[in-house]
Task: structure prediction
Amino acid sequence: MKLEENSSAFDLLAFLCSVFTKEKERECAEMRSTVVEETVQKMVEQYKNLIALVLNASANEYRFNSEEIQCINDYLQKIDENCKKNTAEFGQLYFLTIEIEHCIERFANWQGRGVVFPIAPLNSNYIETNIYIYPHYPPAWNVDKSERKRCRTFNAKFENHVMIRKDDVSPFEISMNYWNDEGLLQRTDNGWKLKVALSPVMDYAQIDAEKVEEEYGKSKRVNGIKNKEEVEERVLRIFDAVFEKQYGIIVFPEMLGSEDILEAIKEKMRMHPEIYSFVLLPTICGSERNVLVILGPGGVELMHKDKGTAFIEEDEYGESYRERLQYNNQIELLITKELGNIAFPICAELLEPMYYSKMMEEGHADFIITPSFSPGYQAFIKTLKKGEAAMTLGLWVNCCSAKNVSRNGKVPEVLAAVQIPTNTNDDECVQQIKPQCDFACSDEICYFDIKIVYQNKRFYVQFEHCMCA
Amino acid sequence: MEYKKLTANFFADEAGTREEKIRSAAKSFINLMIESQYEEIITFYKETKPSRYSGQAYFQELKIEEDLKKSIFDIGYNDALLDLMQLYLEKVSSQKEIDGVKTKYKDDILRILMEKRIMFHKDLAGAIGVSASGLTAVIKQMNATSVKLINIDKISKFTLYSLTPAAYQYVQKSSVQKIEKKKLKKQKEQKEIRSFGKNDFYIEFAEGTNRVKRGMDYIMHYHNSGQECFNQYAIISVKQIGEESGKRKFERNIFSNLWVNAGSNRQEDKELEVSL
Result:
């Protein structure tokens, strides 16, 4: 194993990670927990010069010059020989890998790319090594007790990055985007506040969907909304009411979106780039796609995300129909400095166990925001609860109009939820938000005003149903 | 530093290379600005300004409307401005946070870890002269700001400490600044010597004067502390001058200094002066 010309410390890190199989990684992590002082002393002595080389490279964007590469390759050769002779040497290599990661500061090459951009792996040798190294910021809450810290993996010990093995993500692909700014959280003494608006919008949106019979089964093609103008008017009225109140995050449900809503909201946000809001627009359905657009301050498109997991719906005759969607296997995440990695699974994606586990374990999601259009809610609540062990934050919003696809014709009992990491056994991990309107849709607007407060290492959630502008 | 290699050529460079050059130039500029390296910035500017002409020529070749060109140009300009502000703030706030860490062990710990790279908890505690529990509190203080200084690695039942990249750069910069200061001081001294146009005799005189000054400091110390044998120390200091002819003059100078500073009217002092 050796580094090529122009290699960087990230390439070295990826190289070292790639030496370990998952079994070896786990074995070494366990060995590390019982290693003796003499061994640790030996490791420190053996590798401190190599660590010095990495630290020195920080002045050159972590790129090594040819002499340094030669020196590192000599080290790598010795390591390779030692590992072949004695598998206990892997323990030392494991130590070295973690120490090298600690020497590399987080993403320092963000200049000249704008405020939000897709980000490639920091290591250029990701094809060769099948390892992706991405920057990672810990979220603005204490995660010392997270189950992630107990994992027998490199990521449990890495400080500034996550390491993703390409094979582990399969059958999905991870796609990272980077937000080079802060400002969603309102800082207070000993904590922060996050204002969120979740809107179930209305109960009279009519989905335009047609059943399709195929060779392999039945599906439903969702083409948009039948009463498009009514829905657009309602969504925009709600947006006007909430936007001025400067929420950090505004979330609309699935399926109620359109290009006109997108343009109108962008226009409004463009006039006020000083308002720092992330807006998850109602998803736009058509041409066998279900697309979530996320806008940032000034109407900047932070992300376009295609839904990849179809809903399965049963009609009144017991026939099952799957949502017709173009194939998509991307798990898109947004790297942020305040909220860690944010993931945006759309409805059924959150409920697909494999999607969820890849998003959490490989994508290292710290905050999950899910728009939905579903007659049921229980599966969402159960899935959100899974985030407690990893100490993530979660938001979910549903749509009252799902009653029109429900077999019992009723509005779902729970319309929104907030999942927080809890501190005691008494704390409720998922706060379920039920309709407050006696099922009579307000003439004006409808949204839930939510305040997530983090104070002295504890979370508090307050919410209020707003039906007047 | 050679700045020409940071000069982007919009016609010759691949997009990735150009981006790297511009990014490195921005970082280098901010570093120079923070260190107020005026002369270096002059050199930097002279060597990289050809990229401006390259950029303008490239822009002229673009087959798009003028209004659109202007908008694109303004976007780039604005983005660069904000990027530089952000870079500057990151550097300076990091520096301020580290400077603001309030523990008297900060410099020692940074220096020791810079040298040793990684240390066990007990070894570091011993090196700075605190107890094991005391060190835990110190490390906590050092990591209490938004810029973490010390990596804490728990292996088995041991705790290892190393510098974070931010701390490493801080220490390196401080060391470089100290070396630069020493260099500047030496250059200044040599310049002064050269500007006098003096020879070895002057150097010897200057060194002698330094010795005299040191001698007087000793004497003042012993006199102020009321020690009886201070006059003996005065004689020792005078001997260090080496010039017999200067001795008496120097001794008179010392005593008059003492009387002026300490208001001495001690009989012994007067008798000693008379004897000299």
In short: Chain B touches chain A through 31 residues (CB under 8 Å). The longest strand of chain B covers residues 150-155. The mean pLDDT of chain B is 80.
